[in-house]
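Re: your question from the hallway

Yes, I did run it. Sequences:
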Amino acid sequence: SAVISQKPSRDICQRGTSLTIQCQVDSQVTMMFWYRQQPGQSLTLIATANQGSEATYESGFVIDKFPISRPNLTFSTLTVSNMSPEDSSIYLCSVALGTDTQYFGPGTRLTVL
Amino acid sequence: SQQGEEDPQALSIQEGENATMNCSYKTSINNLQWYRQNSGRGLVHLILIRSNEREKHSGRLRVTLDTSKKSSSLLITASRAADTASYFCATGANFGNEKLTFGTGTRLTIIP
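Structure:
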């Protein structure tokens, strides 16, 4: 299995500002994933982040709103830009370890006022 | 869009009883995974079943997969208060490091 940490665990932000969420894994992985979970909803994939290349975004998500960095094989960041109350969600990163099993971080609970 | 739907959306049972949750999906899959989420926190991986498997067990968990009906079920036997959580199924379309598509989830409450 993988040990995944996220920072911050939660934050309360003002609309119009940006927040960068960090995801750290205890082993090297090729692909990392970022998901969003809106209140009372299931998880929706935002993007897939490969080391050394541009992230691949799902329909409805754009790089200007959710820029992603993947500087090495154990770390990634997701920025939520120009936030509005509709961005209030739990943001989770995950990794897959060769056996298809995906492991998730503890999540970042974001509230936008 | 969501790949799968789960039913029931919510389930309350007495401690000690068995809980069954169902998941349906729409397209061909390579694997299906079940996760537990406690109080909006991170997801805990429970079990993975591949498309060429029909049943899998892990402790008190039993998962079945029927690819002809595009459905899966998760059975938790002898439920405990600590099993209270939301349960999600997620499907992977291809082998190897593939993104997951999540179902709508079932909120399970175990009554002591």
